[in-house]
Amino acid sequence: MAELNLSNLTEADIITKCVMPAILNAGWDNTTQIRQEVKLRDGKVIVRGKIAARRTVKSADIVLYHKPGIPLAVIEAKANKHEIGKGMQQGIEYARLLDVPFVFATNGDGFIFRDATAAEGECLEKQITLDDFPSPAELWQKFCLWKGYTQAQLPVITQDYYDDGSGKSPRYYQLQAINKTIEAVSNGQNRVLLVMATGTGKTYTAFQIIWRLWKSKNKKRILFLADRNILVDQTKNNDFQPFGTAMTKVSGRTIDPAYEIHLALYQAITGPEEDQKAFKQVAPDFFDLIVIDECHRGSASEDSAWREILDYFSSATQIGLTATPKETHEVSSTDYFGDPVYVYSLKEGIEDGFLAPYKVVRVDIDVDLQGWRPTKGQTDLNGEVIDDRIYNQKDFDRTMVIDERTELVARTITDYLKRTNPMDKTIVFCNDIDHAERMRRALVNLNPEQVKKNDKYVMKITGDDEIGKAQLDNFINPKKPYPVIATTSELMTTGVDAKTCKLVVLDQNIQSMTKFKQIIGRGTRIDERYGKLWFTILDFKKATELFADERFDGIPEKVMDTTPEDIADPESDFEEKLEEISEHDEEQVTGVDEPPAPPYQVTDTDDVGPLPEEDEKKIRKFHVNGVAVGVIAQRVQYYDADGKLVTESFKDYTRKTLLKEYASLDDFTRKWQDADRKEAIIHELEQQGIIWEVLAEEVGKDLDPFDMLCHVVYGQPPLTRKERAENVRKRNYFTKYSEAAQAVLDNLLDKYADAGVQEIESIQVLKLKPFDSMGTLPEIIKTGFGDRNGYNQALSELENEIYQLPPRSA
């Protein structure tokens, strides 16, 4: 190679003049084995108010392949002014994503070659010259030994991917999922589990796996199983279309042996009656590959009717696909399929920018948290005597219907959409079909103008409603504006690509992590053509408390507790809080303006989850109205840069509430000092939603209400009750009183320090220790203060001394 003056060359020059000649001279094919500027991630979406932007991401300078779809090595180049190994750590990260053992770092002087296949005692990283770059055959041989491939596996391992000529290729995690599955199957593994988050292309991944196994003739007859008709149709018409005439959808309970690729609903080939078991029309060894979509929904359960199909074709290789493997005492995906060969999580998808991030708005309703109890003998709207007990959040819309609660939820949804965009696609998850219908009706009544424009603005899409189900395709079609709001129970929890869904509403009791992840997945798909880069979850049933579960793997951008009033009030700071930018989001990104911009019924339910649609009529349900339903104060929560939940907003709520009444510290202290009883102010503020226990927990000090408010709202240094009591004693305030009065006041000060001002404002405190040793209540008052007025005056002066503020500097 001719001598070059490398010192002034840029990184691009180094690649062109040094790296490419070296690898081409080593025998690498520029058409099929070399790709430059390989972008592995899309860049995480950062939401700034109503502007969505992506983090900038770097690309791998060069990726070397044995053939398309089978990566071998990463090359990272830097300008010559850098040390030769400068790009190594960056290259190692790319190699991890691609699951390759070879990394080369260069500045043009040569290469640092990292060989993870090196035997024990051999050098892991070594410097080689440009002329010593290894050949494709050399790296492939090392790679095969590292992977442990046998000669029998190679025809399957090296089978081409399907290429439609459009330039579309699998993302890095899809490559890993496909290749690891092919490796497992070619190595004789008959049960394979693949876990990929909703929206990451499981069906496309499954297609490439089937294509390569089919084309290599490793598997000749394939059955693809799903439990939703729309899933089968979507698969057949989209990702599986290249199978063409070799593929059929099983119908009429007939399996046609003339086809090689069979797509079927479980329900189409089995049933409780023997004559419904169409799968028995063919021999147990007819299929040699079965792919089970959403395998967590039944196939792993030993007593499932679906499992009967898998047991019948037990000799076939069976690949389970799921976003949420199910692990309970009764059902275990891993017990049946084994540990996943590959996992790509929701968190990874969001971090990589392939899935949409989301904000959470939590709304707490008073009857949900405090409960509701009927009066004795009260009857519901159907004349049924209501069981006398306290009904709470788990009961509402399951065994107890309160019309006012339904209306409050519907009004809050409506107000939220009015503040954001009334045409944002919205899914409202309800407890059952009856709840979904009542919610539909409430939303229709609250949106008359929208419904007049199009009567499909709100639709109930549930398993029992053929008219609603017929609108499912329109709802998920980005080009179709209507329906806008879909109320559902089980039908839309999984599987359908609702790419433009911007609002997911949870008014359903959810305790299953499996179901929770599936429901969250309704909003995680990105569609930049229609401005869908993020979405919001509006939670009425504390379902998002599952974020705290260690099994949840996708931290939200923001968690905000709020009230329906704040959502409805244009003057509230709801939008500012929701759109607040965290410090760790202040990065250089390329902004994209956000314009205003599915699933059948599942079979697994939770103990307190929604009812299976066929069982609803078996549950006794009371229906009442005329119940006062309101909201309580809430907190706003954020996840910081370290993924820790930080609570900030109860202070904000308290500050906003108090400043409405008392604009300055002087106004507040004047009101406090003038009050005959501080208890009255404390109670008044409680009525406005200030919860002292929550505020005290956030402040983290043993303060009484006065100090908490001065500190949180007006920024005053906080004093504990003990510190205030000690300050009173230091001022020798008691000397103007008699010894008897001083003894009483000194003990009252101790009571204040221990229990607070409310304790000493009750006259009954004089009956407690140590006062009981001073005499009876009348005797204490007469001896120390002359009469009740004298005692009250002394107590008022004591409180003034307790709450005396230090002088403020000018």
CATH architecture grouping of the largest domain? 3-Layer(aba) Sandwich
Strand content: 15-25%
Total count of domains: 5
CATH fold-level topology of the largest domain: Rossmann fold
Helix content: 25-40%
The beta-strand count equals 27
InterPro entries: EcoEI_R_C_dom (IPR013670), Helicase/UvrB_N (IPR006935), Helicase_ATP-bd (IPR014001), Helicase_C-like (IPR001650), Helicase_Restrict-Modif_Enz (IPR050742), HSDR_N (IPR029464), P-loop_NTPase (IPR027417)
Keywords: ATP-binding, Helicase, Hydrolase, Nucleotide-binding
Domain Helicase ATP-binding: 183-343
Protein name: DEAD/DEAH box helicase
Quick structural overview:
This protein has 810 residues and is an alpha/beta fold. It is built from 30 helices and 27 strands.
Structure characterization notes:
This protein has 810 residues and is of the alpha/beta class. It has 5 domains: 11-147, tt1808, chain A; 154-344, Rossmann fold (3-Layer(aba) Sandwich), CATH 3.40.50.300; 353-582 and 593-624, Rossmann fold (3-Layer(aba) Sandwich), CATH 3.40.50.300; 649-718, no CATH class; 722-802. The chain has 30 helices and 27 strands. It has a 9-stranded mixed sheet. A 7-stranded parallel sheet has the order 11-12-10-13-14-9-15. It is globular, with a radius of gyration of 34 Å. Mean pLDDT is 83; it is low at 581-617 and 633-648. One of its GO terms (biological process) is DNA restriction-modification system. GO terms for molecular function: ATP binding; DNA binding; helicase activity; type I site-specific deoxyribonuclease activity. This is DEAD/DEAH box helicase.
